[in-house]
Recover the amino acids of this structure.
């Protein structure tokens, strides 16, 4: 949303159009633990706070009997209306295109950067499609003097399509290799009754991008 508001041509990929902004469990926005995140989202151009104001059914200032340091506004929202209103706001934003699909991997471009040399150095071209070994020979360096550099070009979808992008933001929430535990039983899920993003988690793990689930 923030990118589209800045004039960028933006695509939002979601696994289920009907469940955009589906609220889980307690339908609250704000509070002591997450209220500052709502303010940060608002400051960066997001609409979580705006939508909560539109569909809120109870607004409270928590911990008002204590000192100002722990005061925290919280809104209880209509769970169904929040989802409906959020989709209306997103669909009404110029430049924002919403698509239903599952992202299963990233499109990458591989190149090499000399050890100790910054990414903005004159000799490094992040857009080059020249194979790393050939780039090394042209630069007159040994392969051991180079370190791999990967650049994200877009995403792969489960149906085989590929989408190119100048910038890619992954916002999987609880869905990335999501797991639900009920007593002694565990099963993959993003939210109860919704599939987890397992293939994307496996792809990120294969890329050694840190912990994926």
């Amino acid at each position: 949303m923030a990118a589209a508001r800045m004039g960028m041509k933006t695509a939002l990929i979601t696994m289920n159009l009907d469940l955009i902004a589906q609220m889980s469990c307690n339908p609250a926005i704000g509070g002591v633990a997450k209220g500052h995140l709502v303010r940060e989202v608002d400051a960066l151009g997001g609409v979580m706070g705006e939508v909560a104001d539109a569909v809120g059914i109870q607004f409270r200032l928590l911990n008002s009997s204590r000192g100002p340091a722990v005061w925290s506004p919280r809104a209880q929202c209509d769970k169904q209306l929040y989802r409906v209103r959020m989709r209306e706001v997103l669909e009404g934003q110029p430049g924002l295109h919403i698509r239903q699909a599952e992202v299963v991997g990233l499109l990458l471009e591989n190149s090499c950067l000399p050890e100790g040399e910054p990414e903005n150095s004159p000799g490094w071209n992040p857009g080059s499609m020249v194979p790393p070994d050939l780039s090394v020979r042209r630069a007159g360096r040994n392969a051991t003097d180079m370190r791999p550099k990967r650049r994200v070009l877009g995403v792969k979808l489960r149906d085989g399509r590929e989408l190119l992008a100048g910038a890619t933001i992954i916002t999987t929430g609880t869905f990335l290799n999501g797991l639900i535990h009920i007593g002694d039983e565990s099963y993959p899920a993003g939210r109860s009754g919704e599939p987890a993003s397992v293939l994307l988690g496996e792809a990120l793990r294969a890329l050694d991008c840190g912990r994926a689930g």
The helical segments are 2-5, 35-43, 48-55, 79-91, 132-139, 198-206. The longest helix spans residues 79-91.
